[in-house]
Amino acid sequence: xxxxxxxxxxxxxxxxxxxxxxxxxxxxxxxxxxxxxxxxxxxxxxxxxxxxxxxxxxxxxxxxxxxxxxxxxxxxxxxxxxxxxxxxxxxxxxxxxxxxxxxxxxxxxxxxxxxxxxxxxxxxxxxxxxxxxxxxxxxxxxxxxxxxxxxxxxxxxxxxxxxxxxxxxxxxxxxxxxxxxxxxxxxxxxxxxxxxxxxxxxxxxxxxxxxxxxxxxxxxxxxxxxxxxxxxxxxxxxxxxxxxxxxxxxxxxxxxxxxxxxxxxxxxxxxxxxxxxxxxxxxxxxxxxxxxx
Length: 293
Known about the structure:
The chain has eight helices and twelve strands. The chain has helices at 11-18, 26-35, 77-88, 102-111, 156-171, 177-190, 236-250, 263-272, and strands at 2-5, 46-52, 58-65, 69-73, 95-101, 119-131, 146-150, 197-202, 205-216, 219-226, 255-260, 275-289. 32% of the residues lie in helices and 33% in strands. The protein has 293 residues and is α+β, with helices and mostly antiparallel strands.
């Protein structure tokens, strides 16, 4: 097993390797497509490490992103072990979380000694997928009352409040300077026209939020999805997701992916046409953890 750092000349090879694992690799695929493999301290950039069989075939990848998160796709346990050791010996940046197929994420946590990190959340979410041409069943809703707009049309304070509440409720984040920096960055990005984030208005009042956090020409990953507690239980999330996916389908997108552990959200997604296809572990830390050796 050979491991090495990947570079932009490996983009086509890495994309071919990841494509059969699209449902669990959307963020990897999307970030590679938007930012390449050359790391800069900018959103969506990362250091990528690849594992190769003796015959030269790529058999695993581990990415360390600008925000400190580790993502992987390495079904071969030996490949993942080699990649973790390569990362630990080749990075000066700390880790802030591990996200990936459940067993792979657990193996990476063990190999990198991350059990000592202070976790904001460490749980498994179900991955859902849907073919938009054949499986999509849009939710029924009152088109006279409900309207989708870009998140850029929301008041920035409202968008920040919703993103902060989402992180605290779903990811166990603590209100602190690190969270505020993250929220400021995301609010700025999502608050731009074309920022891949939309809001639902009910009689002109913002009631729900839905974003696309990873995008390929033929597939999108939905997230975040957020409805403030006072507006829940009225079908707003289902209506907004249906509008977002209808727009994506009209743009030529063939497949939608998302993951969640929320029972209410699962009911909404199943009603729209999503079916489960795997498990992702979301292990995020309260503060960065140094793994360098």
